[in-house]
Structure formats: structure tokens, C-alpha cells
Amino acid sequence: MTASSSSPAERRTVALITGASSGIGEATARHLASLGYALVLTARRGDLLEQLAAQLGPHVLPHVLNVAADVSVPGDRARLVKAALERFGRIDALINNAGIGMYKGHWWDGPDPLRVLDVNLYAPIELTRLVLPGMLERRAGSVVNIGSVAGRIATHGMYSASKFGLRGFSLSLRRELLGAGVSVSLVSPGFIRTPLTSGNRLPMPGPEVVARAVADVLLRPRREVFAPAWYGPLSLLSGLTPGLTDLMVRRLMNLR
Ligand SMILES: NC(=O)c1ccc[n+]([C@@H]2O[C@H](COP(=O)([O-])OP(=O)(O)OC[C@H]3O[C@@H](n4cnc5c(N)ncnc54)[C@H](OP(=O)(O)O)[C@@H]3O)[C@@H](O)[C@H]2O)c1
Predict the structure, then answer these.
(1) Helix (H) or strand (E) segment spanning residue 75
(2) Which of 100, 120, 226 gets mutated to test ligand 1 (max ligand atoms within 8 A of its CB)?
């Protein structure tokens, strides 16, 4: 039985969500809890995970495991997966959501430019490597990667490098696993109102739009979906009008 073919309420599908302490990860945890999933929630701020789990209510709490961990630390990743397997016996769905944004100035002036790659790209790859053997053995499971429109439209050097990379990883892995019973989907958000975008005054939808897209791809896996959906045509259009996109992105990023 795959996570994509069974209703989570029939037999609780176990979803591991990284970056669940805020924004998109938190909204996804709330949404999947409402759909009857068992949850493994992880982020560095364990206190926020505890608060969230308590808010999910007494009927959900027995089906939630919190693990405070830094996804960029190999030992933390191993501890996280071990704890999840000890508690639930399997991980049906891995949702690679934890991510960090861009340094406000030029990336080459930043203190640790490659940190973005560690968190946004290497950690999802390594976590996938840890959960995949179990999924392949059961011939069942879902990997959902949270990319970005910045993985389609180049914006900030390091952030786009991480999200273009994650997109390539996700699309390739999906193809590599066709017929193996394990699905791989990429959810690419546009601007979403979360702590990550708190300095930005553009009008933005809340993170629930991404949470719903994640729940959708768990039931109906897709190569890539955009959230909100209109970012899909925008991404295509930007490829056809690169000069105009240069002007728009530079203006958006306050580059002169
Ligand atoms: N908001 C947007 O407009 C937007 C657009 C496109 C894509 N995205 C992507 O969506 C994902 C979620 O972003 P968000 O907007 O929800 O941002 P957010 O509210 O800042 O949440 C980021 C989450 O990642 C966790 N995290 C960061 N570094 C971590 C680390 N080293 N180890 C473990 N957890 C870590 C944070 O938890 P702790 O600090 O507690 O560790 C937090 O829970 C990211 O991958 C981001 O790139 C966001």
C-alpha cells in the first residue's frame, strides 16, 4: 500500500516534515494532522515544535513525534530517522521543507555563502538517502521536495543554486524511481507570507496554499506543482522573455 494510494485516515500514513517550527512546514503539519496523518516534526527550535504539537489537540498528540534537529548536521539526520523508525516503524512520506533564505546583500559578501546549499540542497538529498531503502523495500513511499520559483527563475546566486539543484535532484530521482513504488514530487512556491519573507511588502498568500499542494501531491504525485498555481505560467513566460525578466528580477531584488 503506498502513501499515495491509501487514505491517511484508514491507516495512519507517517509523514516526516522538516522545518515544521514555522511558516510552510508548520502549516503543512496542521493540514496533514487534520487529514489524519501521523507526524514526525523536526526543526532546531524544539520549543516551537512542542507548542505546535500541543495546539494540534489531544486526539492528534499521540500520533506526533517531535525531534529537535539541525538537518545540516549528519548526526542529527541519523538520530531523526532512527527516532522516527523506533516510534512508528516506517516513514511513508518525507517532506523536505526546511530551508533558509538569501543573504540581504550580494552572496559573495555574506559570511557563509555555502550554508544555503547545506540546508536547502545537501540535507534533502542526505535525508532522502536515509529513508529511501525502507521505502524501496516496501515498494511504497513519497518524497516531496519544497523547491521554489527561484529554482526556475534565477534570482539570488546561492539561493537559486540550491533550488535549481533541488529541482534537478527531484525530477531526476522521480525518473530513476519510476516503477519502484516510490513517488517524488516537487512543490515550488512563489512568494508566500512566512517569517522568511517578513521583510518583503509584496502582497502574498499565506502558507496554507503550499500545505494544500503538499497534501495533493501525497495523494496524486506530480513532477512539479506551483503554489499558487499561476507561478507555473509565469515561470514559462520568463523563459521566453529573458531580457524583461532581467529587468523585473533586478528591480524586485533592488539591484542597480
Ligand atoms: N516563503 C516563501 O516565499 C518561499 C518561497 C519559495 C520557497 N520557499 C521554501 O519553503 C521552505 C520553507 O520556508 P518558509 O517560508 O516556511 O520559511 P520559515 O518560516 O523561515 O521556515 C523555515 C523552517 O526551516 C527550519 N530550518 C531552517 N534551517 C534549519 C536547519 N539547519 N535545520 C533544521 N531546520 C531548519 C526552520 O526551523 P528552525 O529555525 O527552528 O530550525 C523553520 O521551521 C524553504 O525551503 C523555502 O526555501 C519559501
Answers:
(1) helix 74-88
(2) 100
